[in-house]
Amino acid sequence: MPKPELLIVGGGITGLCAAISAAQQGARVTLVDAAVNAGTTANAGSLHVQLQSRFMRLYPEQAPNVEASLPLYLRAVREWDALEATHGPFEMVRKGGLMLAEDAEQLAFLETKARREADKGLDVEILDRAALERIAPWLGPQIIGAELCRDEGKLNPLAANIRLQAVARSLGVSLVRDRITSLLIGSDVQLRGETDSYRADQVIIAAAWGAGDLVSGLGLALPSRAEPLHMNITEPAAAGIEHLIQHAERSITLKQLQSGQIVIGGGWPAQSRGNHAVPEVLATSMLGNVALAGRLVPGITGLRVIRTWAGMNTTIDGKTALGRLAGAERVIVAVPGDAGYTLGPLVGRLAAELAGDVPGDVDIAPFSLARFAA
Amino acid sequence: MMSDPVTFFFEGEALSARNGQSLAAALTDAGQRVFRHTGKGSPRGVFCGMGVCQDCLVSVDGQPNQRACMTLARDGALVQRQVARPELESKADFDGKPAQPLAARELTPDVLVIGGGAGGLNAAAVAASAGASVLVLDERKVAGGQYFKQPAADAPLLDAQQSDGADLLAAAREAGAELLGGVEIWGAFAGPLLYAVAPDGTPLVLRPKQLIVATGAYERPCMVPGWTLPGVMTTGAAQTLWRSYRSLPGRRVAVCGSGPLNLQVALELARGGAEVRLVAESAPSPLKRPASAMALLLAGPKLALAGSGMLLGLRRAGVPVHYDTGLAAIAANTDGSLRATFRRNGREETTELDALCMNDGFEPQNEILRLLGADMHYDPAFGHLRCTRTDSLSTSVDGVYAVGDCCGLGGAPAAAAEGRIAGAAAAAACGFATHEDLWSSRQALAGARRFQKRLWALHDPAPRNLDTLPDDTLICRCEEVTLGQFRNGMADDADHIGTVKRVTRVGMGCCQGRYCGPVAARLVANATGRSLTDHSYFAPRVPIKPVSIGTLMATQEALDAKA
């Protein structure tokens, strides 16, 4: 096999879209994936744009970075639109997301948030109960209003992942199962994996929470952290919930997939068993998360939860890390940070364009790795 | 024979049932075989008969998701076929959370026994006799398990097997064990901490000092085209219809697969009045293997003679037993009756039937053990996982014992002996000395294991090779995934069962992968050339059985109120 021009570490949504984009540019691409705790394979399919209250509450110090990234989120959902049009269907629905308020204080918070988001170009609106009644009559009676962000949506990540893998294969991308453990920079990049070793002219590290360890020897202190999260799925019901549902104060995402199943998640913790073992589902998260969902949307209480699972979200500092590594320019880091599935296709494509020296349509300077220089 | 007939309504039609009959039995008596249609429009009815497959779901008085096999026919009940995708708005009207959530019961017995069969009841009797507080939970309203299958309500006991079960239940109660029936366990977490729901909706939170898992096994089907048709059911389901409810699965019946249960049930159904057209056994005749048959006789003369008595009984009843014979396909006639094709020495033969019973071995119900992280190992002879245990039947998890078929097939006599040993050990761990004669139990266990080994040498307990099955065979009943789709799903990346699951949706339905999981694990293992381990199967996840959001809300509210 000829040496690939580009080797991508991480076969999640970011790496996959980087591979597709680079292959479309004509590059010989190898994609190496460890198949361990990939956030993409456990993802529940929310397309996030508005500021997530969960994130602002848990990581207040990162909120300014997230807010500054809002335009990137907007670009990212449009990237998904384009992907769906070219490679879909991914069962994508972009009817918007509703962030619910149960009291005046929460509604006031949403109003402030909506103004700031509108300034960043988001299509947002505050709805009162009467307006909600028209589009979401199934909400609990205690909901007094909501912020509607029309840019948000949902898709079936299983469908998207399968389709995009098939696209990558059809473009000649070589998909390899291995866990890369180290990189050595010389006249090219040498990579050592658990089962094999590799060489490539350039490398994109799209390894989410695993990226920090890989670049720690290359002068970059990238604080990529694995955050094990809990999710639940119900049996199917007739179609009824079009929007992505969130809450102004509490952790939740709720949406109905095309299968009719309701997916309930939104950042309840799972118990880590180390980054290389699947996290353990916690009783407190299952009970708390599902009970909250049933309270917000009483129409689902008769449905049965048929499965729960846990997957790794990745956080950095509230902002995407995307750029060439100073002193090791053959290495590009592409880690979207929070809401990685939403941002993945855009960040992946931008990384591939950076690798191919193709002028991109997004200024990536704000996402430079310089802020993590060790 | 049973008093107080009840009248209920199925799709508006008045039907009568005997007191204590399950809905599945009463509907079967009434000739109703289609209980619901899947999202893709396929008809489904009774299949497992024991609350596993989630295929006999009906709505009762507006409450959906009632398993007809586990639900009693109540007077005046309005029963309807389950809608595949119910409306959300109307959902709020039925089930839902109770206006005042029932207070959760937090139970902290010395010894919690899950499963009231041969293993669990013996464990409970021994532990309670020693002085430990013992709670036994069973999913069925009437405990006894699959072997002792107790009659419903006031029906008389059928035979020694049922009266032995009744005696064992009485012994466990007399020893002081508390038995709770109709309890659905949905969560098992480190501790052990278990969550369940009682039949009246009361959330149960269980924190036992010692846990004995005795959850038994469910039946492995003969996966052939048509195995999901109404009228096709497991042999155990047919046996429950007859032994517990005195209902016959149909007039013209055949039994297929491998193992002694098929012979027993064929004889029971024939004596009950069914026209049993044949028993198809995939193993060769014992007459062709006199050495194995003699070994069985030596290992357990009494049971071996009982077995040959069954064969004799079948001959007298005019039921042919065809050896070396496998099921090839099942088709439905327009009137809902079945056409089953059997294959013997390359020749195919078709039989017209009303019901086809299948048992092709067993799969352990090891969900709780796997969730708690108990060590497992694969047994290629039986094609399923076995739980690794010490001599006192404790698992690799502190304070957790496992007995009976949930640890891998061993049969009821072995389960009973294991139960007595584990019951004594669990009581001792709580500080209660037992007077149990452990030596006898160990002898009995060794004898039962010897007998089982010889017994299965005459049958065919390893799973079938699926290579020759046509692509249109369903392997996932719930998501209706075919073998062909699964094979395609493996083509690109068959690295792990989870990967193929995400590609094909195999195992994503309401039975939670119980039927497709073992098959999918083997197909992936074959494709990758890896041997099977615990990790080859779907990752264990809560809920153990589907649980309504209303139940979870009531549990959470009760826990909140306590805090």
From TrEMBL, chain A:
Spans through the membrane: none
GO molecular function: oxidoreductase activity
Gene3D superfamilies xrefs: D-Amino Acid Oxidase, subunit A, domain 2, FAD/NAD(P)-binding domain
Keywords: Oxidoreductase
Name of one Pfam family that matches: DAO
InterPro entries noted in UniProt: FAD-dep_OxRdtase, FAD/NAD-bd_sf
Limits of the FAD dependent oxidoreductase domain: 6-354
GO annotations of cellular component type: cytoplasm
Taxonomy, superkingdom: Bacteria
Entries under PANTHER family matching the protein: FAD-DEPENDENT OXIDOREDUCTASE DOMAIN-CONTAINING PROTEIN 1, SARCOSINE DEHYDROGENASE-RELATED
Protein name (database record): Glycine oxidase
Taxonomic lineage of the native organism: Bacteria, Pseudomonadati, Pseudomonadota, Gammaproteobacteria, Cellvibrionales
Automatic annotation (TrEMBL), chain B:
Organism: Chromatocurvus halotolerans
Location of the FAD/NAD(P)-binding domain: 110-419
One example GO MF annotation: oxidoreductase activity
Residue stretches making up the SoxA A3 domain: 475-556
Protein keywords: Oxidoreductase, Pyruvate
Top-level division of the source organism's lineage: Bacteria
CDD domains, per database record: GlpA-like_Fer2_BFD-like
Taxonomic path: Bacteria, Pseudomonadati, Pseudomonadota, Gammaproteobacteria, Cellvibrionales
Keyword Protein transport carried by entry: no
Pfam family name, one: SO_alpha_A3
InterPro entries reported for this sequence: 2Fe-2S-bd_N (IPR042204), 2Fe-2S_ferredoxin-like_sf (IPR036010), BFD-like_2Fe2S-bd_dom_sf (IPR041854), FAD/NAD-bd_sf (IPR036188), FAD/NAD-binding_dom (IPR023753), Metab_Enz_Cyan_OpOx_G3PDH (IPR051691), Opine_Oxase_asu/HCN_bsu (IPR017224), SoxA_A3 (IPR041117)
Entry protein name: Pyruvate/2-oxoglutarate dehydrogenase complex dihydrolipoamide dehydrogenase (E3) component
